[in-house]
Write a structure and sequence with these properties.
It is a single chain. With 297 residues, this protein is of the alpha+beta class. It has an 8-stranded mixed barrel. A hairpin with a 4-residue loop joins strand 5 and strand 6. The longest helix is centred in the first third of the chain and has 51 residues. The radius of gyration is 28 Å and the shape is globular.
């Protein structure tokens, strides 16, 4: 009996050691994958910075038309004839510039845009895979396994042609990666310091300003409530008003930013734990668009 007990004890120890070794191996593997993914992102950001830090060329002179001091003439009666008004020279069309994220776009055709929230860690590619919306849920930009995943553009959103609302999903990571800092917008002071967002697409730069911040959740299909994640296009004033009125009413504070029918939005969504299947949502209104990027080389 004692011998059997000793054998069982040794077996349990051996099994425990094997489990610890396996767990350690898994953790080490995940750490290596995370590090590789982070290195990939850092390389992509460095590539973008290399474009923005290039010395600009000499500014081109804008031709001007000198206004004559006095070109009026008099007829025989002594009255001044109509003065010829010089035709103003139109401003030159700005030359297209290279997209700072073109290397990233070319490296992965699944990339729809690059999101930047100045002053935060939110500086990531946004992936769009209509064939499988969850493809990058646990994959990095390079397609390899990664617990952080990627920022994912909802399959019902589209950047070309641009839908009224772009919804981007991201993990709420404890490390602050992806949308791990998004819930800081619960504090109005944080909003005041980080109210602007930028979205680089292939063709140009979209700028946004935060308009509403609120907690929500993924509801049952039968729940008759406002579901922010179902709004993508407003073709009528009524559709716009339903979305706009609800996000303003739900907002934790008044951002004093307003919108009207025809405006477009960017919605960032991440997991929240205030309720089952909770979400924390930040909505921004598009404030500008510059069609400035040249076609890729």
């Amino acid at each position: 009996m004692r011998k059997n007990t000793r054998t069982l004890f040794i077996t349990l120890i051996a099994v425990g050691i094997c489990c610890l070794a396996t767990a350690g191996g898994i953790l080490l593997y995940r750490h290596q994958m995370d590090r590789q993914a982070q290195e990939t992102l850092e390389a992509l950001r460095a590539s973008a910075e290399s474009y923005t830090q290039q010395a600009p060329g000499d500014p081109k002179e804008i031709p001007t038309t000198d206004t004559p001091t006095d070109t009026s003439e008099q007829d025989t009666s002594g009255e001044a004839l109509p003065q010829e008004v010089p035709t103003p020279t139109p401003l030159p069309t700005p030359e297209p510039v290279e997209n700072p994220y073109q290397d990233s776009f070319l490296a992965n055709e699944d990339m729809a845009a690059w999101l930047v929230v100045p002053g935060t860690k939110m500086d990531y590619p946004v992936m769009w895979t209509p064939r499988d919306e969850n493809y990058y849920l646990r994959r990095g930009f390079d397609g390899k396994s990664n617990q952080n995943g990627c920022l994912i553009l909802d399959t019902d959103s589209c950047v070309d042609p641009m839908t009224t609302n772009l919804i981007i999903h991201g993990h709420n990571m404890k490390s602050g990666a992806m949308f791990g800092e998004l819930d800081k917008y619960q504090e109005e002071s944080y909003f005041q310091e980080h109210r602007e967002m930028m979205l680089h697409t292939e063709d140009g730069l979209h700028t946004y300003e935060v308009i509403a911040v609120f907690p929500s959740q993924v509801y049952k299909k039968t729940d008759q409530v406002f579901k922010f994640y179902q709004f993508f296009q407003a073709d009528t004033q009524e559709e716009f008003d339903y979305f706009y009125d609800n996000i303003k009413e739900l907002s934790l504070y008044d951002t004093e930013v307003t919108a009207e029918f025809g405006d477009r939005f960017l919605t960032l969504s991440t997991c929240s734990y205030h309720v089952d299947r909770g979400r924390f949502v930040v909505v921004a209104k598009e404030t500008g668009y510059e069609d400035i990027y040249a076609p890729f080389r």
